[in-house]
Every structure is written in C-alpha cells, then in structure tokens.
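User: I want to check something. If I give you two sequences, will you return the structure for each one separately, not as a complex?

Assistant: Yes, each is folded on its own. Here is the first sequence with its structure:
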Amino acid sequence: MTEKPNRTAEMADILHQASMLYMASNLPIDYGTGTKYTSVEVHMLKYIIDHPGKTVTELSREWDRTKPAISQMLKRMEQKGLISWTTEPGNNKKQLYHATEQGIQLHSAHTEYDRNVFGQTLDYLRETCSDEEIETCFHVLKEYTKARRRKHYQAK
C-alpha cells in the first residue's frame, strides 16, 4: 500500500525529528560511575557484552559503520578500560573484543540509567498512548530499521 505523498512526507519528517533528538542525546554523560561516556560507547559496550569475541570487520558490518570508524571507537573504549582484545587461536592478526570488569560495571550502571530515564519517557507516552500502541510503535521501528538496512545494502 502506498501512502499519500503529503502523509509520506509528514512521516519522513517525524522520523527525522526523532532521529535528530536521538543524535542530540549523544553528548557524554555520567551513567553513575563518575566518568562520562557517549551513548554510542555504552551501546557498543552492550553489544560486545552480548556478542563477545567479535572482530572489527564483524562489528563494522553489524553496526553499518566503516572499519576505520569502528577501530577508532574500539581504541577509545580500550583506552578508557572498557574493553580488551585477544587474538584468535592460530591467527595472531585477528583481534577478538571482550568487555573488561570496568566495562561490565559501566554496562550495569547504564542499564539502570536506561531503566529510569527511558522509563520516564514511557510514562509520558502512556499519558496519550496505550501499551499496545507503544509495543506496535517499537515493532514498526524494528521493522523500519531492517527495511532501511536492506535498501541500503541493495543500493551498494
């Protein structure tokens, strides 16, 4: 089903506004550890905790970023003591990334922070939306992300 041109433009504008709000939230903040980190760093850390042993190449593909951009972020995270790497047995050139104890502590603090802050946002949404509408919204956003990635990779 194709949307009306004006509605399609309005929908695109809403997504753009949401994206701009999210991008503005990437200022470093203290998640409760006494040190400031960006949301990209803490979400990459979560991904590494959930998927230990990933390489730069794998992270680059899965995060849709260039290998130099991922390498730069991982280097900063390593310098901050959040992650470390080991080599793959039999292949000293392949670096496998894992969270450090400090990274695991930050992840725990970040999870609690998100529960509180995002929980407040959900409470605001519940003033005008049902739980079912909120669940549907996140389902659609997840599928939207998949569709955009599929379109992006088919264009290359």
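And separately, the second sequence with its own structure:
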Amino acid sequence: MRTPLPFSSLLLAASLASGACDDDGGPRPPAADDAAIDDPADPDDPADDPADDEAEVPPRAVDEPITPDQARYYLARVAPVIAGRSLTYDEYQRVLDEGEAAIEPMIRGWVAEPGFVQAIRYLVQEQLHASGERDGIDYELPGNLAAQIAREGLPWSTILTADYCVSATGEQIECDTGAPYAAGVLTTRAYLISNKGRFNLTRAKLMLETFACRVYPMETSVQPRLDKPVLIPMFRAENEEEQTVDEAKGGFGNGVGCYTCHSQFGAHAQLFVKFDEDGLWRAEATGQQNPYDELGRSFDGLYTSHMFDPFAAAEEASKVFGQDVADLREAGDVITDSELFPACTVKNLVAHAFDLQAGASEDISEELVAAVASRVTAQSSDPTIADYVVEAFTDPQVIDAVVASLESE
C-alpha cells in the first residue's frame, strides 16, 4: 500500500538553516520565496501540455495507485532535467499503456542517452557559476569533467578527486591553475575566479554547500572548531569585549562574533591560500594581510589567511571534517568519503529538478534524502551519477509528492 505525501514533504521551508554565515562571515539573509515550478515540457506538444495536466489529471486518493496520466505528469516533469528533452510520442503511449510501471525503465533508459550527459554538465555549471570562455580562460572545464563522468559512468566522487581536467573534445589534460596537484572542479580557474573573494570565504563556502550541504556554522561533530590561538585576533572574538580589530567592530561579517563561524570557515579557506584572484597557484603566497589594502586581501592578488602563525598561514595544510589534509586534493578525498557527500548529491538532484533550494536549505526532507542516499550507497560504495538519478527519481515518496502537488495547481 502506498500513502502519497504532500509536496510539502519536499518543500519544507523557504529559509536556510538559522544562524548561517554569509561570505563575509555575517548572518545569511533569508532566502527568497521559492519560485513556482514550471513544467518544462514542450508547450506545443499536446502530449506534454502542462495545462492539460492541470485540467485533466485529478489528484489521487490515499492508497490509490497513480494513474497513467499522473505517471505521465511526473515523467514530463523530470524528463528535461534527466534527458534534456520532453517526452516523445512513443514514451507518451508507453506511459498510457503501462502507467506507473513505465517510470523506472524509462528513467534507466534516459541516463544512457547523450542528453543525460549534457544535463549533468548543466547542473554542475549552474552550481559552480562557471561556463563559457572569457579573457582566454576556459570556464567550461568544470562542465567538461562532469560530462565525462556521466558519459563514462565514472564514480561521482571523481568530481572532486580527478587528477586531471577535460578538454572540449573529451581528452584528459592538465588543469590550468599551475598547482602541483589537481582536485577535480576545485582546481580549475573557472571555479576559483568565479568564486574569489576576501579571506577565500566564497571559495570555501561554495565547496562546502555544494558537496556537503552545510554552511557555517555547522555541527562541531562534522567540523571541529579551530582553537582561538590558531586564528588571527579578529576571528577569536565571541563578544564585543573580545573584539580588538577596528574593521570588525565597524561591521565586517559578524563584527564582534567572528569566532562562531570563522573557527570552521578558516580551516576550509586555508585550502585556497595559494590561489590568487586569477585562479593561479602561487608557491610564494604568505597568507599575510596587506596593511595597505582592504581587510582579507594579501599581496599581489592573493587573499589573507585566518591563521595567526606565519608559517601555518603560508601552508595549504589544514583540517577537513576533523581530518588532517595537505591540500585541496586530499580535502576532496575526505569530502567524498564523508556520508554528507551522497546525501548532498541526492538533495541537489531533487532540488534542481523541482526548483527547490539546495545546499543547506530545509526545503527538502532530510529523512527522504538520507533514505535515498542509503539505498544508493548500499548498492555501490562509490556510485555513479546515474545511480543517484535512478534511485532519487524512482523513489515512491518523490513520485507521490510531485503527483500530490496537482491538488494545489
């Protein structure tokens, strides 16, 4: 017996987790109201007309199997984000004949199509704010890697652990930062330039939110805090009396309460200390504040470290999720080995498909995400993106929640 869930089981809240920090370490503003979910099917195709869906498909009752029209409605919603297209006439007929039984085999077929490769490319480009080419820099490198991973059925963890980049023709090439290592999309100039900023906060924040679905501050069981003496003085402060830096008193980030976020932020930002504003790796980086520039900027286009000790400030070594890492390459291994990575992958896919907030938002049920991620990793210790997609979009709770949304349309 099936008990359909209301769409609110996916869409739980429009606001991000309370107390989250923005790129400057300050409180994150509330998220905007969720946009209406548009049916991306071809409006000129009667078989895929959303208006027909709304007018003709009644919401099903509790314990009633979904109808062929409801199955068609669901598949029409997910086809563009999986296969990059609308339902074909043959698929439309198949759903009418088979009903809900057609959902899984059709989705399994879609992840073998070329459109799936491009859909995953687009997902990653959107997440990382990187595509195209500007000023001689190839912003397609993150998308190229994502496409290769999807096309060749590589583990999705490769997105952070690949020791190479991928050209427009699909060939493995050296990445473009000049770093003596590679860490998937993180060591592309596309990612680093698109997300540059003082203290390397934006680079660290996007890495965490995209691949672990957390923001600062997070549970200390996930990321233990750095001890106060490790940090530069402004980031040690927890109250007005402890804040000794004038710029912080004047409104930078949390102002007087920097330690709450930056005791975790600092560990991840340190991984980027040798990458300058042009996304190039600089061995000579010191991480020291330039006294003649704005707070958070070091010398020659580099960014300031959180670390007080000058030797530690100049090194990429840090801690990620409680583990020592030498650089971004090792950080990628730790993140993808974490239980947060598969859960976040599921959450990102569902959010992308239904125009919900991803990352650390509360828009999607954590119980749903955990259940799907658990099934995926039970089948493979290092799943492909196709594994995640099939499991997420054939999940009965996801199907029921989307079908139940008809009632409010």
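Because they were folded independently, the notes below concern the second chain alone. The first strand starts at residue 133 and ends at 134. Confidence is low (pLDDT under 50) at residues 1-6, 12-19, 25-60.
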